[in-house]
Each structure stands twice: as C-alpha cells, then as structure tokens.
Design a protein that fits this description.
Layout (H helix, E strand, L loop, with lengths): L1 H24 L6 H11 L4 H25 L9 H7 L12 H11 L4 H23 L2
Helix pairs in contact: 1-2, 1-3, 2-3, 2-6, 3-5, 3-6, 4-5
C-alpha cells in the first residue's frame, strides 16, 4: 500500500507541476518554480521527469501566448515588437522572465516568426531556468 501511495503521490505531483507550468506561462499569473521546488523536495528521484515536464508545460504555455499573438490583427503595434524584430526568435530565450516573457511570445506570434524556432528558443530558456531551480533543491 505504501508503494501505491508513493506512485500516486509522485504521479499527481508531476501532473500538478505540468499544469502549474503550463498556466504560469500563459497570461495567467503563477509560480511554477515553487511547485517544481516542492515536487523535488518531496520526490528527489523525480529530478529529470520533473525538470522535463515542467519545461514542456511551460513551453506549451508560451506557445499558447505565441498563438494568441499570431491571431491578433496586424493593424495595431505591440510594445515589444521592435525588440523581437531586431533579435528574432533567439530573444524568446527570455520568455521565462515574468511579464516581459509573455510580451515577447505575443510579439513573436504577431510578427509571424517561425513557430518551431520559437518553440525551440522558448524551451531552451525555460529549461535553463527550471534547471537552476532544480539544482538548488539538491543543496
């Protein structure tokens, strides 16, 4: 029974992390880093699954914001468009930065930048941030 509880606890923790990471990367507020920290403190053996699921959820959430930008009419000017236009999709490595990251994803979508390059650079930045948080849980 203890094994079943441990499996259910770890599975639910990973699902909760994924959902939290996804929602935190959309325009909704959230603190997925705290959820990652908690999951890894309770289940240190889940280091890589938690890191990868958190990154996946957060990247998908960023892509939702990218898609929202893609759907906006191009008749209006968005605030961070010039920065994204200047640096291109590599600027999306900063998609993890609160508030600014959402605007960058939205601007990249509005500019109709390559979705797969956007996903790649968003994932790189978000993985790096989660990796730092995950490493600190090991201390």
């Amino acid at each position: 029974m203890d094994t079943l509880n441990a499996i259910l606890s770890s599975d639910l923790s990973l699902w909760g992390l994924f959902v939290s990471s996804f929602l935190a990367a959309t325009l909704l507020p959230g603190g997925s880093e705290a959820v990652l920290f908690g999951v890894l403190k309770l289940h240190p053996e889940l280091f890589w699954p938690a890191l990868l699921l958190g990154t996946l959820g957060n990247t998908l959430g960023g892509m939702v914001t990218f898609g929202m930008g893609w759907l906006l009419p191009q008749t209006q000017q968005l605030k961070h468009v010039e920065k994204v236009r200047k640096y291109g999709t590599p600027a999306l490595m900063l998609a993890w930065v609160p508030l600014i990251g959402d605007a960058l994803c939205l601007a990249a979508g509005w500019l109709r930048l390559s979705w797969w390059q956007a996903a790649l650079f968003i994932a790189i930045g978000k993985f790096a941030r989660y990796w730092v948080v995950a490493v600190f849980t090991q201390i």
